[in-house]
Amino acid sequence: MATHPLAVGVVVVNWNGCRDTLACLESLARTAPAPRSVVVVDNGSTDGSVETITGWAATRSGLRVVVLAAGANRGFSAGNNLGLAHLARDSG
Known about the structure:
Layout: E1 9-14, H1 18-29, E2 37-42, H2 49-58, E3 65-69, H3 76-91
Parallel strand pairs: 1-2, 2-3
C-alpha cells in the first residue's frame, strides 16, 4: 500500500513577537516533510514584524509562507480564524 504525505497547513498568530515567530518559522523550515503552507497572521504589531517576517519568507524557497496583516489586534482566536480561512481558500 502506497503512503502519501499529508498536506499540512500551519497558522502562526503574531503580535509584537517577531523574534519568537521567526524562531518558529525556522523550526518549521527544518521539519521533514515541510508544511505545504504556513500562514502568519499579524495582529497589528508595531515592532516591524510584518516587514521583517515578509523579508525572511522571501529568502526561503523551501517553505511557502504567506503573511496576512490583520491591521489591528483582533485577538488570538480571530487571528487563527483568519489564517484558517486563508488555508481553506488556498487548498481549493
